Amino acid sequence: MIENRRLSEGSAWIALEAVDDLPAAFDPGHVLGLGLMIDDQKLMRHAYTVSRGTPSQRRFEHLYRIISGGRMSPLLAGLSAGHEVFFHGPFHTPIHQEVQPEAEQIILMSTGAGVGPLYGYAEKVLSEGESRPMTLYAGFREESHACLADELQSLTHRYPNFGWHFTLSRPSRNWSGLVGRVTESVPERVGMEGLSRAHFHLVGNGAMVHLVKNALYRAGVAPGRVSTETYFNHSIPLNESEVEQVAARFSGRVMSVGVE
After folding, report:
1. pLDDT tens-digit profile of 14-52?
2. What distance in Å separates the CA atoms of residue 120 and residue 97, rounded to the nearest whole number?
3. Which residue in 85, 144, 145, 202 has its CB near the most CB atoms, within 10 A?
């Protein structure tokens, strides 16, 4: 382990460097199983998504959520530089391989620690010459949970085709950004033009990912222009009324809500 630092309330950034002789060419969106040896006899493992990869240095980094009462993340957060962490993988498809080259713009949406691989993807492809308009939307509950704002702002200074917005579901009175969940504040900003031109990549809570994915399909976006990664709530049931409401926000339709 090279680095392990807190970024916000409940989130941390870990940087690792492979010390074996096997390839370590990992990119944002790849998933690795990280492992910690417990009591010198038991290996505890959990999957974490790569936020940034530097194959030439055999280095890879993760933004991860520290779950209070969790099995592994509190142990991981307590480690310091030099500690040995095991890993295996990769799994999943890196983001840059999922975004359709035919799309005219790229819209990235996340909740919580899902902002990590989206930031890493944007940093990677923009540095490699990506010129399409790209906007990142990240949802958090409170300001203290938000992270990577400085890093994202740095990208806007270097790349005029990149923009980003945070949206909070429980903002303070001093908050000047977007308000509401990602499903509430983002669709109207995307609008019909975005629906017809963009590739959407969604990362985070399954409740958001499944709802937005199905709302985009309902609004007319082809399945090939929506890619996803779900962190938890993988099997949460869909509420058809919510899907229709979010689809209406994307397409600019006005829905009447009945009162019982």
Report:
1. 999 999 888 899 999 999 999 999 887 789 999 999 999
2. 14
3. 202
Other Cβ atoms less than 10 A from the Cβ of 125: the count is 21
In sequence order, which residues have a C-beta less than 8 Å from that of residue 94 and are 6 or more positions away? 26, 27, 28, 29, 30, 50, 121
105-111 and 86-91 beta bridge pairing: unpaired
Q: How far apart are CA 29 and CA 48, in angstroms?
A: 10
Do residues 31 and 89 make contact, with C-beta atoms less than 8 angstroms apart? Answer: yes
Supply angle C-alpha 118, 136, 217, rounded to 5.
Answer: 95
pTM comes to 0.94
49 contacts 60 by C-beta, under 8 angstroms: no
